[in-house]
Design a protein that fits this description.
mainly alpha, two-stranded antiparallel ribbon, globular
Amino acid sequence: MEKNNTRFIVEGGVSIALSFILSFVVLFKMPLGGSVTLASRLPIVIFAIRWGVKKGVLAAAVLGILNIIFGGYVIHPAQAILDYILSYSAIALAGISFGNSKSKFSYIPSIIISYLVSGAFNVISAFIFFNDMATASAAGFSNFTLYAFAYNYSFLSVDALILIVVFLLIYDRLKAYLNKQN
């Protein structure tokens, strides 16, 4: 049991560190926050698949806290919780397998769901804390909520696509690691 706890802590720390480092490999940065990275969420996704959603939430929340500390934009504690803690914690939903066989394709729906939930927290935060109709109007929207959806999911969808492609490319090599707990 102690060996498993040590392994969990070490793998969690390494996953968090890798995700944090990959978050600096920015392919495109949005003007009002958010970016497309080189699969920065992948280490946490792999951790959540290996250890489960509950432990994945813990690792993802720590990643969110690191992002607050090192460059997060916080105007209110509730906004920090929505944009960083809850949004990043949603990454762990990717650890859910759809179907009985744990194939690489059984995780694609959960990866998509994790991005949808993560984005939903960002949209809620935008609606509550960044509701600026002038910005939405300048972008051609007459409704701020629609603008917040379009803005957040525009870069999250690209980020998700990159992560899914990389995940599909490396899954076969990771399969033995994902199934091994001892």
